[in-house]
Write a structure and sequence with these properties.
Order of helices and strands: EEEEEEEEEEE
Structural class: mainly beta
Number of helices: 0
Low-confidence stretches: none
Number of strands: 11
Strand content: over 45%
Radius of gyration: 14 Å
């Protein structure tokens, strides 16, 4: 199993910025889906930003304000959040899709590993 650990959450005023980081011991992110989801109180978990085989998908609510990236070593995933709004308050989860090596190359397994989440609170 992959045990993802997020860091960088906390409290910030609206309009501020915050950067989340995510990684796992001795783990390198693959080209399968990896990125960030969030869950606000009383709401379902939702996609924030993910990278999948080079393509990046952002939720409409964060496009233009948030940026997902990973370092060159592919061991750390980031979420840069700018111009934060109170509605961005949520627990943010790092995810990575499981994968396995086959004779034809890497195969994405279709299920995800989740971090424990980090709280982001934006106040007005």
């Amino acid at each position: 199993d992959v045990q993802l650990v997020e860091s960088g959450g906390g409290s910030v005023q609206a309009g501020g910025s915050m950067k989340l980081s995510c990684g796992a011991s001795q783990y390198t992110f693959t080209t399968c889906e990896r990125g960030w989801y969030r869950q606000a109180p009383g709401q379902e978990r939702e996609l924030v930003a993910v990278i999948n085989d080079g393509a990046i998908t952002y939720a409409d609510a964060v496009r233009g304000r948030f940026t997902v990236s990973q370092d060159k070593s592919k061991t750390t995933l980031y979420l840069q959040m700018n111009n934060l709004k109170t509605e961005d308050t949520a627990i943010y989860y790092c995810v990575t899709e499981a994968s396995r090596a086959t004779m034809l190359g890497l195969k994405c397994a279709g299920y995800k590993y989740w971090g424990q989440g980090t709280q982001v609170t934006v106040s007005s």
